[in-house]
């Protein structure tokens, strides 16, 4: 049994981005992959189980939250060797903190290729919930995606303190559990104490929660909201701009390849 069109699978695993949580925030291609899967290995601690209901084939479903890399790969290899459609389902977009490189390398040892179907990130969902543009002219044209150092070390020069020197919009994953240290590093690195910050818990889920403040007061607000995990920290003046320039994209005095300047 194979997928039709571009989803045909021959010795291949589909790595699918499930999106941030809302079952409707998955790509059409990702949804089709889930619908036609015979085996699904999903990140159970992060992926909304409602998305699994799209499956039409009564797929065998495995929760990778309770498995190690060897067990995950073994299930995928076994499924492919049996000629089954195998989907590895990650939260958000698998290219960001998805730990997919190691899975790809292990599958290749078995002669199995992958196809990656991107997904909507939690950062995109959080920005949508906050109704903000992360790249405002005159405010910030750069978004830094990072995380604090924990069990996974960070390369030299990528500490939050070092990255803060740029003063750009920063999206910090996996950091709400150490919010005090994160805020301390942001301030010590160069952000003003009155820099706007938002913490979005489970962006796009039904129980989404948003906490807004500044670096001066965000820590007690987050603690009061009892947010300890599954949250994204966004920092920067784009959250509450005092002054910004309108884009040249729609400026009547600015010519593009599609629009001439009005006289």
Can you describe this structure?
By secondary structure, the chain is α/β, with parallel strands linked by helices. 23% of the residues lie in helices and 19% in strands. It contains seven helices and ten strands. The strands form two sheets. It has a five-stranded parallel beta sheet with strand order 3-2-4-1-5, with helices on both faces. A five-stranded mixed beta sheet has the order 6-7-10-8-9, sandwiched between helices. α2 (69-81) crosses α3 (100-108). It is globular. It starts with 11 loop residues before the first strand and ends in a 28-residue tail after the last strand.
Summarize the structure.
The chain is built from 7 helices and 10 strands. It has 263 residues and is an alpha/beta fold. The chain is globular.
Strand and helix map with partners:
Blueprint: E1 12-17, H1 28-35, E2 39-42, E3 60-63, H2 69-81, E4 86-90, H3 100-108, E5 113-117, H4 122-130, E6 143-146, H5 160-163, E7 169-172, H6 179-189, E8 196-201, E9 209-214, H7 218-224, E10 231-235
Parallel strand pairs: 1-4, 1-5, 2-3, 2-4, 6-7
Antiparallel strand pairs: 7-10, 8-9, 8-10
Please name the defining characteristics of this protein.
single chain, 263 residues, alpha/beta, Cobalt-precorrin-4 Transmethylase, domain 1, Methyltransferase, Cobalt-precorrin-4 Transmethylase, Domain 2, five-stranded parallel beta sheet, five-stranded mixed beta sheet, 7 helices, disordered N terminus
